[in-house]
Amino acid sequence: MIHAGLEPVSAFSAVATSINNLGPGLGEVAYSFQGVSDQGKLVAVAAMLLGRLEIFTILVLLMPEFWRG
After folding, report:
1. C-alpha distances in angstroms, 4 versus 28, 37, 41?
2. Using one digit for the tens of pLDDT, what is the confidence trace for 38-60?
């Protein structure tokens, strides 16, 4: 998130908010993620998937062993 242009406090709180579903962030993301770049939003989406463990479903679908039966 820092590489996406956010200040460190905003970047940390944005990732923490996304992973843990905490609620409002701090700094630039206190009210909305509207000002975050597309790259930053993709990081937030990945953090949300990791936080809810839905990443395992995606990884299983990408494994060749799953499709071989």
Report:
1. 12, 6, 9
2. 999 999 999 888 887 777 888 88
Q: Is residue 2 part of a domain?
A: no
Q: Model-level pTM? A: 0.68
> Which residue range is the domain that position 62 belongs to?
8-68
Query: Contact at 8 Å (CB) between 1 and 14?
Result: yes
User: What total number of domains does the chain contain?
Assistant: 1
Phi (first) and psi of residue 62, to 5 degrees: -90, -10
Residue 5 — left, alpha, or beta (φ > 0 → left; ψ -120 to 50 → alpha)? Answer: left
